[in-house]
Amino acid sequence: MTERRPASTAAPGVATRIAAARVLDAVLHRHRSLRAELGPALSTLPDPRDRALAEAICLAVLRAPQRYAATLDAWMAKPLPQRDGLARALLIAGLAQLDPLGLPAHAAVAATVESMRAIGQAHRAGLTNALLRRAVREGVPAGDPRAHWPGWLRSHIEADWPIDADMIYAASAAPPPMWLRANRRRGTRDAYATRLTEAGVEFTLDDDLPDALRLAQAVPVATLPGFAEGDVSVQDASAQAVADVLMPRPRARVLDACAAPGGKTAHLLERDPTLSMTAIDVEPARLQQVDGTLQRLGLQARLVAGDAADIDTWWDGTPFDAVLLDAPCSATGIVRRQPDVVLHRRESDLAALLALQARLLDALWATLVPGGTFVYATCSILQDENARQVEAFLGRRPDARAEPLDARFGRESGVGRQVLPGERGRDGFFYARLRKAG
Ligand SMILES: C[S@@+](CC[C@H](N)C(=O)[O-])C[C@H]1O[C@@H](n2cnc3c(N)ncnc32)[C@H](O)[C@@H]1O
User: Fold this and answer.
1) Which domains does the chain show, CATH number per domain?
2) Which of 103, 379, 382, 415 is flagged as catalytic?
3) N or C terminus: fewer CB in 10 A for the chain?
């Protein structure tokens, strides 16, 4: 029997659950991207703790959507009709609050039932209560982390990394650690470590990454000492390693060809503000984020909105000493952070990305001074986008040769180095460093 209490979004946690369910409905049922949906949804929640919870719910679901769908299929006599995507998303969000998030069962069940009423689905309050109570009693059936990946992508991964494939799937389904980058302009990493300790935030240091601190538990950025003042940034360890691969000399002219949202541009400038930096991105809205990042950190670069490969439109002909191509890619190394990328990716997207990467490599090589350094990096784990892409480029360019990188940058992979997701707590990443004949 359905109850007749009035629905209220003011009840504890209801607005949070509905915000999360709206995002999940859009991503799971309407092929929208998490990145596009999450920001606007979170901005409706004034309390940072509610925002953190809504985000955690969305990520927990999207790391294993098949697991929750299979649970609903097994436990419901009749699936919810297509038009009831929001109600379905609420149920799935309820299951994820129990496992893996481990919220107190009473709070998770009560808030989800109340949310169902608040979206005008009071007739499903009893069903919601029964399904979630069953999950509390029996546990949510375990999922298979491989099920998250489309078959064509699994074929690539299992061909490229036959021994590591299961580790890749498992690591991609697990929440990543939060990594910080201390801003050298504002003091040493040790000085920032002391401030974290004083604030009661637990962390470890990584010997291979001079600016990095790895938090024991993720925290809202607003609670980090000096975040608003630019004393620290959030950036995965693998992304931080790029500055050590490029290593430009003081006052070098540096090009960051695919720069948004600006993490690596900012890191390079924090290391050495004498660099003359040009940062390009094809998406003007994302380039604005580079601007925001640099302003928060008090850094300067020349920003260009445009297609980096179309060099006649933005290059004045003065060569760069160092070029960073952090290329658009399948993002298969960061599925734990952006789990929706594999839900929506099609094989034809990969072909388009491979062509774009080759076009960017060929065009940007012309902007590098003889003797200069070119770094190609991706957050992909597919060898077609990484070692094989660079090897094909070297075959086209007799004036390019790959330089060895050491084990700080991962395992050897053809002409570069590869980190697989989760290794040493890092995102999956590939690096190759090329030198132009002088
Ligand atoms: C991997 S992300 C870069 C991340 C960035 N380097 C950072 O550390 O914050 C790739 C970027 O390439 C941009 N992009 C894609 N095609 C491009 C092109 N033809 N020219 C310039 N930028 C492009 C995308 O908009 C995206 O922001």
Assistant:
1) 14-143 (1.10.940.10), 179-226 (3.30.70.1170), 237-436 (3.40.50.150)
2) 379
3) N
